[in-house]
Amino acid sequence: MSVPPRLFDPQIVAARRARAHRSGPALFLHEEAAFELQERLKDINRTFTTPAVVTGFPDFWQVQFPDARIVEDIEVLDLAIQSFDLVIHAMCLHQANDPVGQLVQCARALKPDGLLLVAMFGGQTLSELRAALSQAEVEVTGGLSPRISPMVDIRDAGALLQRAGLALPVADADPRKVSYTDTTALMRDLRAMGEANPLTDRDKRFARRQMFEKMATLYPMQGDRVVATYELLYLTGWAPDQSQQQPLRPGSAKARLADALNAVEMGETAQPVSIDERENR
């Protein structure tokens, strides 16, 4: 069997993160994600005793969840089957070559009725930079190479959970706007996040200075600053269990939806309603 092509280069991903660690990482978006995940856990009336966190930034996430086992986000996760009641996939699924496979491994690691929480970057992330950089490269070089990672859209995120066999899947988005003095500061921040281009098919030659100068002129400004969008996606799914709420069997309803909505079904004839009756409805 042929090996499917890898979208991301794992060695480059690791090198980018190592450089971020050495330079002092800019993890303010990880801080936002950790706070949001902790708030969601507070809303769940349950105490989790065997948590695990899958992440590429172990030092930061160990502090956020000191009782959790920290697991490196490599292709085969070090997670024993049905060993955890909570698994958090923290800000690294967007750089996985097989995101469904990652979720399947997390789902298998959950005990029955265990919870999976995912925080990741979504499809609207860096939309302004993506557009400006693409246009600048075409104008300067006459071609286009992959420079910003593709990311999952919120409309497809819930389907990933379903494909992994998780119950009660929920996906929601939290877009954040971050302003910078200029595009150079934005690019510097991306390197400090460990989010510089890790694509396998990236152009490995040094980019022309003129391309970045052109990109700076094309980037939309808000006043005297540039603003970047970061879309944080949060996914929630549960390991299936008989104790969970189950959907009703088809045909088991005891009342018509049309009656509850005071509506007329197709094939029925609407009865005349007076003005007074309309006002009372």
Brief synopsis:
This protein has 281 residues and is α/β, with parallel strands linked by helices. It has helices at residues 10-23, 28-43, 58-64, 99-109, 127-141, 154-163, 183-193, 209-218, 257-261, 275-280; strands spanning 51-55, 69-72, 84-90, 110-121, 167-180, 221-222, 225-238. Helix 3 (58-64) links the parallel strand 1 and strand 2.
Count the helices. How many? 10
Q: For the CA atoms, what is the radius of gyration?
A: 24 Å
Distance between the amino and carboxyl termini = 65 Å
Sheet with the most strands, sense and barrel status? 7 strands, mixed
**Weakly predicted, low-confidence segments:** 270-281
The arrangement of helices and strands along the chain is HHEHEEHEHHEHHEEHH
Q: Which word captures the global form?
A: globular
Give me the count of strands. 7
State which percent range the strand residues make up. 15-25%
Provide the structure class.
alpha/beta
Average pLDDT value? Answer: 85
Percent helix: 25-40%
What does this structure look like?
The structure is a single chain. By secondary structure, the protein is an alpha/beta fold. It is built from ten helices and seven strands. Strands 1, 2, 3, 4, 5, 6 and 7 form a seven-stranded mixed beta sheet that branches. Helix 5 packs across helix 8 (209-218). The longest helix has 16 residues, at 28-43.
